[in-house]
UniProtKB/TrEMBL annotation:
Superkingdom to which the source organism belongs: Bacteria
The name this protein goes by in its record: CatB-related O-acetyltransferase
MF-aspect GO terms: transferase activity
Record-linked Pfam families: Hexapep
Amino acid sequence: MTIKGVLKKAIKTLQLKMKYGQRIDYRYPLYVADDVRLNDVHFGIYNNVAHDAEINRSVIGDRTSIGRFSKIESADIGKFCSISWDVTIGATGHPMTHLSTHAFSYRKLFGLVNKDGQQEKKRVKIANDVWIGCQVVIMPGVTIGNGAIVGAGSIVTHDVKPYEVVVGNPAKVKKLRFDPATIAKLEKINWWDLSDEQLQANSQLFTRDLDQEIIKELRRLNDV
């Protein structure tokens, strides 16, 4: 790394520490835009968080990007995920089986209780290489498998299997990205775990439609 690069890294690290302190854990580089709110977040490497996003109590895998105005709560998100703008992950719910759905009985800001109650929230689990379109809402406790796509404006209330394409309210399966046999092979390959050197040397595998030659080469690289 050049002297300029070292200085740039040092300045960026200092800026992040001054702004967020111990509220985040990360490896450089981390790209965080203005007006982003972070609390108890563990980042991987080469993450990008666009302006006005908010992330709380979550883990974000390597090279995952998060769009503007997106809100993430209590989620474990894998590598190489593309999360668009104004997405809500881990949406806050209300107690439908209580006498009232209102939060006055466990939130002190409404003036009827002296302290906030602890509301258990199930974590959202999003695997690797998942694409989530704009204005999607993902409810607590949902698991989304590798390679899945969630269409814009969808509300996800149930688990999504690997490489499914889901759309709608509630989100339903529209199709599979690939045939079941190919999906089974991809699930064993886990290309997102390849080293940076392997990905750089084989980037051409990701620039054309998937075929069996690509599968064969990925299996060789991953020794499966």
